[in-house]
UniProtKB/TrEMBL annotation:
Annotated ranges, domain NADPH-dependent FMN reductase-like: 1-149
Transmembrane segments: none
InterPro entries, per database record: CE1759_FMN_reduct, Flavoprotein-like_sf, FMN_Rdtase-like_dom, NAD(P)H-dep_FMN_reductase
Taxonomic lineage from the root: Bacteria, Bacillati, Actinomycetota, Actinomycetes, Pseudonocardiales
SUPFAM superfamilies: Flavoproteins
Swiss-Prot/TrEMBL keywords: Flavoprotein, FMN, Oxidoreductase
Origin: domain of life: Bacteria
Protein name, entry field: FMN reductase
Pfam families found in the cross-reference section: FMN_red
GO molecular function, one term: oxidoreductase activity
Gene source species: Prauserella oleivorans
EC number(s) reported in the record: 1.5.1.-
Length: 202
């Protein structure tokens, strides 16, 4: 089984690559088998992608990466959010991939940004892109703002990563994941018991 990971981070190290790696690790863990993981760093392909857009033909390096993505059994695609949408590099890569090459492919989408305000870009920009490409999208998309990587929000991000990764693993194996959300009230002591305890102590 082959898992492709496309990350459009522009710096090194990159929070976009970090999110992509965390998603891939969780998918591998939940697949129950060791897939071949191939990571495509779009930052390293920027010139090749631009040349392809101008000439209409990919060079050998870009061709190999396109083949790795289109030949995979599942895809993780993560982009930074710039000006409320995916990056131009991210969009340009999928422009040269072709609009039928991902038909029916299980895809998990993710994005990173400096503020939670940009999280809606996953649903109004990234998801429609892959719907147009006829990919089979995992229901859960993962957005990580700068504040999600530490403190109290880190656990919530980890939960979202595992839920989304489980959905992609399910799509790849044909066994859809059933995620039972945690009930925040399951450990709450009923009011009657609390009253009873108060009466005993008074």
């Amino acid at each position: 089984m082959k898992l492709a990971v496309v990350t459009a981070g522009t710096t090194s190290p990159s929070s976009t690559r970090l999110l992509a790696d965390r998603l891939a690790e969780s998918v591998v863990r939940q697949l129950g088998e060791e897939p071949e993981v191939h990571v495509v760093e779009l930052r390293d392909l920027a010139h090749d992608i631009a040349d392809n857009l101008v000439t209409g033909f990919p060079g050998p390096t870009l061709r190999a990466e396109i083949d790795a993505v289109t030949g995979a059994d599942g895809l993780i695609a993560v982009t930074p959010i710039f000006t409320a949408s995916y990056s131009g590099l991210f969009k340009s890569f999928f422009d040269v991939v072709g609009n039928t090459a991902l038909t029916g492919m299980p895809v998990l989408i993710g994005a990173t940004g400096g503020t939670p305000r940009h999280s809606l870009a996953l649903d109004h920009a990234v998801r429609p892109l892959f719907a147009y490409l006829r990919a089979m999208l995992a229901p859960t998309a993962v957005y990580a703002a700068s504040e999600d990587w530490g403190g109290a929000d880190a656990g919530a991000l980890r939960d979202r990563i595992d839920r989304a990764a489980g959905e992609l693993a399910g799509l790849m194996t044909g066994k859809p994941a059933r995620h039972r959300p945690r009930d925040d009230f399951e450990d709450v002591v009923p009011f009657e018991e609390q009253l009873s305890a108060l009466r005993r102590t008074s």
